Amino acid sequence: MFKLKEIREYEGLTQREVAEKLKVARSTYAGWECGKDIIPLPKLNEFANIFHTSLDYLIGKFPDIENIDKYFKINKNIVANNIKKFREENDISQTELAENLNTSQPNISKYESGKYLITTSYALEFTQKYNYSLDKLIGRK
User: Fold this and answer.
1) Taking the model in full, what pTM does it have?
2) Domains in the chain: boundaries
3) How many CA atoms lie within 13 A of 97 on its CB side?
4) CATH class of the region 4-58
């Protein structure tokens, strides 16, 4: 699903080298790369920063690589505001959004308040269900 391996191989790096850049064990990175485990959103963002690409490219939303030069750090409050703004602009209740993402309304409330950062799996579900940019959701662009 993610284009981690494609980018790693294009850059001529080993899994160990990428894992070191992300400050995780090689086995952890290998699990993400093969799709056995889901990469946490902050680490996916870090990968995008290292390789100067967009999250939307990494998740396969855009077919062409985008070269992004600036470093971006995820801010839970920006993500929270973007989720709430989207929901309100589209007249969707927290309960309805929760149902559409297969989670609970209290989780949506925690994401919207900035208490918790939305998980990668729910962020991906959000981008797919609503045809929304992951980069935009986290405030990357």
Assistant:
1) 0.87
2) 4-58, 76-137
3) 26
4) mainly alpha
